[in-house]
Design a protein that fits this description.
Number of strands: 14
Bound molecules: phosphoenolpyruvate, manganese (II) ion
Largest sheet: 8 strands, parallel, barrel
Mean pLDDT: 97
CATH architecture of the largest domain: Alpha-Beta Barrel
Strand order of the largest sheet: 7-8-9-10-11-12-13-14
CATH class of the largest domain: Alpha Beta
Number of domains: 2
Oligomer: single chain
CATH superfamily of the largest domain: Aldolase class I
Order of helices and strands: EHEEHEEEEHEHEEHEHEHEHHEH
Structural class: alpha/beta
Strand content: 15-25%
Amino acid sequence: MIIVLKPSTSPEQIQHFTDKLCADYDVKVNRWDGIQSTVLGLIGDTHNVDIEYIDAQDIVESVKRVQEPYKKANRKFHPENTVVKINDKVSIGDGSLHIMAGPCSVESEEQIVQIAKAVSVSGATLLRGGAFKPRTSPYAFQGLKSEGLDLLKIARKETGLPIVTEIMRTSHIDMFENVDIIQVGARNMQNFDLLKELGKTKKPILLKRGLSATIEEWLMSAEYIMAGGNDNVILCERGIRTYETYTRNTLDISAIPIIKKLSHLPVIVDPSHASGKSWLVEPLAMAAVAAGADGLIIEVHNDPPHAWSDGAQSITPNQFDSVAKKLFALKKALQNEN
Ligand code: PEP
Ligand code: MN
């Protein structure tokens, strides 16, 4: 961290400020006296240094971080990839490709079991399905709630697929005890109370990128979960809000290699919410695999025109079968290259 002091700062003030920084934080302070102003360089672990406090001091002209503010999620301090183990067959981040597939909303036992069986045959290794739905309109279907969780568990029993479903509030954590991966949706990426509570569990967490979140904000949200002691975080790029209106969001493909560079956490991609259009799911999913994603989460519905939510972006089980074949073939081709 680099701190530039105002030219009017006296030697006593500089000494007092330097002593305080050393006392408050685990850092050493290097000092350069220029003709106009003095520059302080903080060396050591600066991730918990309060930059706003420093910026607010009368003697400070400017302050700049040169190190990322996240530590546990940072590849610099954890060079090897994190692998999130779900069960004996599914480990996310181990170099294999995992596809989570299923409907946006769980609608009935027949629907979820039928879709689960179909996607399992096509190679999906996890079942997704929303029971608690964060909808833009309060008049839209809000999910079957706890009944939806029960139906997901029935589908898991029928197929053996671990289940992924979204949590919306802290008081529901006990209810999600038997869920294999707890999804934190884009709208809750900065629900810090929820992140902190999930950090106290050992549950695998699928952390979606916020609608307009920067990569650093997204990693700071992962840091919240990890700071509580839960390292089982999987990141999910699901498109961000841009000026483009043709698609529901804009898939940020560059986020995949950037996350791989900055963090050791696995990253998967959601081409369904990124595009909002079923015909875009295949090309975006292919691009995600080519860019190094550890997995995908894809909305699949047995009757998209009648889906209770997100029908326009849902593909059918037959379409999923064809997409999955191409994705696994692409993954294999990429592995043979290396
Ligand atoms: C979802 O996965 O159903 C969902 C609501 O996604 P997001 O939080 O990415 O909008
Ligand atoms: Mn959806």
